[in-house]
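Annotated sample (chain length 125).
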Amino acid sequence: MQPGTLATALALLFASLAPYRVDGAEGTPPPPASEEGPVKRYPEKAPAVRGQAAKVRLELTGMVCGGCAETIARLLTTIDGVISAEVDLKSRRGEVQFDDARVTPERLLAKIKANGYGAKVVADR
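Output written by the structure step:
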């Protein structure tokens, strides 16, 4: 291994994580995934909402660890029109805020299912 290669690789890794805030801590890499609570991912700059800001609750299957929950939250935030996503491993639930003029709940479910997880919309009570 050449000198500086590991340092360069780590710098690139942490630079790729910098655009996200985790639990309100801006500019720090996310903590190791755990099963103790929700994993939150927010884009650094919230997209402009064209329609109504809507919220949907999801029941998720196929998660086995905190990394799975984090992956689903990150997948959802890559969809144009998603404002925020929160996934809780313990309850197997997620909550997504989105611009209803740009994305539908069906599109959210399709993205989750295309990546090997199960999901369905849960009605509010």
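Annotation: The longest strand covers residues 53-61.
Annotation: Residues 18-28 have pLDDT under 50 and may be disordered.
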